[in-house]
Amino acid sequence: MPIKLHDSLSRETRELRPSQPDGVFRFYNCGPTVYAPAHIGNFRTFVVNDVLRRLLELEFGQAKVRHVRNLTDVDDKTIRRAREEGRPLAEVTKQWTAKFHADCQALNCLAPHDEPTATGHIREQVDMIDVLMKKGNAYRAADGSVYFKVSSFPGYGHLSRVHERELQPGSALAGKVHAADADEKEDVSDFALWKAHKADDGNNAWDSPWGRGRPGWHIECSAMSKKLLGDTIDLHTGGVDLLFPHHENEIAQSECCNGVPFAKHWYHSEHLLVDGKKMSKSLGNLYTLDELVAKGFSPMAVRYTLLMGHPRKQLNFTLDSLHAAESALKSLRSFRNTLQTTAGSTTPGKGAKDFALVIPTLEDDLNTPGAFGALFRELNQIHSTGLFPAHAAELLIEFDKILFALGLDLAAPVPAAKSAPAEITTLAEKRWAAKQAKDFAAADALRKELAAAGWTMLDRKDGYSLEPLKK
Ligand code: AMP
Ligand code: ZN
Which of 241, 269, 297 is the last residue of a domain? Predict the structure, then answer.
C-alpha cells in the first residue's frame, strides 16, 4: 500500500512518491539545537520521523531513501550557553551532539544519511543570501545585517495562512518574528538571513560580503537541503512549532533563490504535553531520557509511549503511560518467544489469522495508535485460539517486519525487572509459590510486604515480573 500522509500545505492527505527520475525519495527533517539534552518532547518528533523513515524504506527500498537531518550548532541559544559556561561554542555543541546521538541510539532511531551542521555550511548559506540579494529579495541594513524582504515573495504565508494584518507590530505573530531586530528592518515581517556581529557573539563570526557576522537560523535548512538533496525535495518535516515562521521562511528563501517549488510535501507532528502544557526547555516541565531511565524505565518503553498517540494530535505524557508501555513490550516479547518456539515444532495448533492490518494502518497517515490496536487485537485472538506451527514461521517474519516499522527492539535491555534487589526477588518467589499452592492468604500478605518495600508483581499465566511502584 502506498504511504499516505497529511500535507500541511495543501491540507490534504496525499500519497508519498519520489518526484525525481532517479526514484530516490528525498526527505529533510529539521534537527535539534545542540546546547542541552534533547527532552522527550523533542524525541516525540524524532521518533515519529523515524517511523516515517522506516516506512519509506519498506515502500521504496533502503537504497532509494535519502534522509537528511541538520544540527543547529550556532544561534542565540548555543552562543549564550557557551558564553555562560566560558567554553568555546564548538566544544559545547560537540558535547550535546554526542548526547543526542546516544539518546537516538537508545531510542532505536536510524541515523540519517547526512547530518549537516550550520557552522559546516557557512559558505553555502552566504552563497544563497548572495543570490537573494542579487534577485532583490533581500537587503542589507545599516548595521550589516541582511534581511529577507517578505513583500518580494507573493507566496509568503501559504503554509501557515498568516495574513498581513496578523504580522502588524504588536501582534502575537509579529512577536514571534524576531521582534528584537525590529529597528533594523524595513518591515516587521522581514526576517534575518545574516546577523551582523555583536559583542555578545564573541568570536562566533564569519566573513561575508556584508561584513562579519553569522547566518540567521532559517537559512541553514534552505542551504543544506539544497546542497544535499537538490532544489526540490519530496518531504520536509518538523514539529508543529516550526511551521511558522521557520518553514514559511524556508519556503520563501528557497523558492526565491532556486525558482522552483521547494518541498512537494510538508508534515508537522504535534507536541508532547505535560499537564496540558507543551514540554519545553523554557517552561522547565521536561523529562530527559536519562531521568526516565533513572526511574527504572527502558528507552524502548519511552519510544513506545511516544508512539501511543496519533502523531498529529497532542499527547499528554504521564509516568502511567510508561508503565503501560513496559507491559505492552513484555507481551510482545513473550509472544515473539512463543512464535520462535512454535515455528520449529510439529505439534498442531489451532487457527490464527495474521497481522495484515498493522502496516497499512501505519501507512495511513502514520496512525500509530491504530497500528498498536490492530497488533494487540491480533495478539489476543492468537492467545485465545492458539497457533498453527507452520503458520508461526510466516507470522514471525510478518511480526518482525512490524517491529522494524515501529522501531521496537525487543532485545534491548529492560532495567526495571532486573534491578530488583535480592530480598525483593526472594519475597516474589515465595509469593509466586504460595499462589501456585493456592495459599491466597499467604500470597496476599507477601504482596503487601512487597508493596511496603516499593515493589509490585505483575502476574501472568506462565510467570510474573517485578515493577517498582509508581511514585
Ligand atoms: P529544537 O531542538 O528546539 O530545535 O527542537 C527540535 C525538534 O523538536 C523540532 O522539530 C521541534 O518542533 C520539536 N519539539 C520541541 N518541543 C516539542 C514537544 N514538546 N513535543 C514534540 N516536539 C517538540
Ligand atoms: Zn529547519
Answer: 269
